[in-house]
Design brief:
Elements: E1 2-4, E2 6-8, E3 11-13, E4 18-23, E5 26-35, H1 39-57, H2 61-77, H3 79-90, H4 94-114, E6 121-124, E7 131-138, E8 141-145, H5 153-164, E9 168-172, H6 178-190, E10 198-200, H7 205-214, E11 220-224, H8 227-240, E12 243-247, E13 252-256, H9 262-274, E14 284-290, H10 291-306, H11 326-341, E15 345-348, E16 365-368, E17 385-391, H12 394-402, E18 406-407, E19 409-413, H13 417-426, E20 431-434, E21 450-451, E22 454-455, H14 465-468, E23 469-476
Parallel strand pairs: 1-5, 8-9, 8-11, 9-10, 11-12, 13-14, 13-19, 14-17, 16-17, 19-20
Antiparallel strand pairs: 2-3, 4-5, 6-7, 7-23, 12-22, 15-16, 18-21
Helix pairs in contact: 1-7, 2-4, 2-6, 3-4, 3-6, 4-5, 9-10
This protein binds nicotinamide-adenine-dinucleotide.
């Protein structure tokens, strides 16, 4: 059995107390035991990162680029093995997990390139003879806190730019996915990263996470997770006057217009709402459907849902894996239950499934006859649950789409250029999809949302530099 440890100052550090890493597809399958670090390990990790920072932040960009490239190559070369590991601990299907591993590898390779082209500017000063230089420098030690639903891609998309621009890292991954975090630490270490530049501390959010955000040796915090935890981080960061970047929940709308290609609409809904077990911050949990196409859309979607196999994440026949754990499963059922109590009709799914292996299996759930004010359409479920909200026309559909405290991703399925253009312009979301699922984004472009979904500079692509560097303006009089 595996034992997952924290990685501090280039050394693996275990603890007496451990937690179980259980396979959600088969709860009899205990994958390993994870260390439960405490505040002392956070202190040691931050101290190691602070010690490593002066040398790393001034290290040759070629060295940084090479380490990131080697890391990306190893992740890509081990895609099948790491995909199995990720599918086993998180429960997404092997295809989805391997795709996530590939994405993580590609992010490291993209950032290997960015390390070599850190931009600056040279301008004439308003004072004669003087020149002004605008350069970017590393911020310092970055505290990172990540969720369980993308166990390698999210740590990758935070770590890769942090290292590319010369920062040191202390990361606390989610308790449910220690194996993927350990793999990343191991690969970075063997790729030649100096000791102390990347530190991993396994443990509870309320202990390790809280200690990390309160630690005076942390210069910035990058967080992905739920809104409640994010708000707490924002307050602490503000009181310490350090920068923070928060990526949080979503209640993403997919608008289906009467003029939509029905096949595209159904596939977008199926993928966006239910694949990855709906456990994506970009999942389309609100399907806003124009009245002319409503009945046909619902009928076709239900018939596609009936053909979906829910099963063990490693079974090649599986389309949707299990829910990540019992707590999330119960929370999903309670959302469905309360939606029905509010008057929604459960037209399909929403049931616990007993399959060949004991796991947290749930059939994807579709609720109809809902309206946007219902709790089910305002609160994030984070499971395979979607509801249909009827709309009379484009204006009503757009108003419903925007009537949410979140603003991560949104989508429209239409053949009308006018509707597509108007939706793209007026949707209050950070990412807008036309004739494509709300989930599923490219690794080389900015990722993030508006309103309660995101706070601070964007992650990923060239925009990641905004968070991970500090701008310096230098005046030179020769
Ligand atoms: P969570 O907020 O429960 O946990 C996220 C991380 O925060 C974990 O590592 C957890 O241990 C840590 N944490 C918990 N309490 C803490 C505290 N008091 N102080 C510091 N850290 C603490 O979220 P989750 O259940 O792991 O993930 C699901 C959530 O993540 C959903 O809301 C989802 O929408 C969101 N998410 C957002 C994005 C995005 O990019 N917008 C991507 C993926 C997931």
């Amino acid at each position: 059995m595996e034992s997952y440890k924290s990685f501090i100052g280039g050394k693996w550090v275990g603890t007496e107390a451990t937690t179980h890493n259980v396979n959600p597809s088969d709860t009899k399958d205990l994958l390993g035991l994870a260390a439960q670090s405490g505040i002392e390990h956070v202190n040691q990790a931050v101290a190691a990162a602070r010690e490593a920072f002066p040398a790393w932040s001034t290290s040759p960009i070629q060295l940084r680029s090479r380490i990131l490239d080697v890391t990306g190559n190893e992740i890509l070369a081990r895609r099948d093995e790491l995909g199995r590991l990720l599918a086993s601990e998180e429960g997404k299907t092997l295809r989805e997990a391997t795709g996530e591993v590939i994405r993580a590898g590609e992010i490291f390779k993209f950032m290997a390139g960015e390390a070599l082209r850190i931009p600056g500017e040279v301008l004439d000063s308003t004072r004669p003879g003087m020149t002004v230089e605008i350069t970017r420098e590393a911020v310092g030690v970055i505290g990172m806190i990540t969720p369980w639903n993308f166990p390698i891609a999210i740590p990758a998309w935070k770590t890769a730019p942090a290292l590319a621009f010369g920062n040191c890292v202390v990361i606390k991954p989610a308790e449910l996915v220690p194996a993927s975090a350990q793999v990343l630490a191991d690969i970075l270490h063997r790729a030649g990263l100096p000791d102390g530049v990347f530190n991993l501390v396994l443990g509870k959010g309320s202990v390790v996470g809280q200690a990390l955000i309160e630690h005076p040796g942390i210069d910035a915090i990058s967080f992905t997770g739920s809104q409640g935890v994010g708000e707490n981080i924002a307050q602490i960061a503000a009181s310490r006057m350090i920068r923070c970047q928060l990526e949080m929940g979503g209640k993403n709308p997919l608008v289906v217009m009467d003029d939509a290609d029905i096949d595209i609409a159904v596939e977008c809904a199926l993928d966006g709402s239910f694949f990855a077990t709906g456990q994506r911050c970009t999942a389309s949990s609100r399907l806003i459907v124009q009245s002319g196409i409503h009945d046909q859309f619902v009928e076709r979607l239900v018939s596609r849902m009936k053909a979906i196999n829910v099963g063990h994440a490693l079974d090649p026949q599986t389309h949707i894996g299990p829910v990540v754990d019992l707590r999330q499963l119960e929370s999903n059922f309670s959302h469905v239950h309360s939606a029905r109590a509010e008057g929604a009709e459960l037209i399909y799914g929403g049931e616990r499934l007993d399959l060949a292996t004991p796991g947290f299996y749930m059939s994807p759930a579709l609720l109809i006859a809902t309206h946007n004010d219902m709790k089910i359409n305002q609160d994030e479920v984070f499971g395979p649950v979607a509801s249909v909200i009827p709309a009379a026309d484009f204006d009503e559909a757009l108003a419903i789409a925007n009537n949410t405290r979140f603003g991560l991703s949104s989508g429209i399925v239409t053949r009308s250029l006018k509707h597509a253009a108007a939706f793209k312009r007026h949707s209050q979301a950070g990412m807008v999809m036309v004739n494509a699922p709300t989930a599923g984004v490219d690794p080389h472009v900015p990722f993030g949302g508006r309103k309660a979904s995101s706070f601070g500079p964007r992650e990923q692509g060239r925009y990641a530099i905004e968070f991970y560097t500090s701008v310096k303006t230098s005046y030179i009089q020769p």
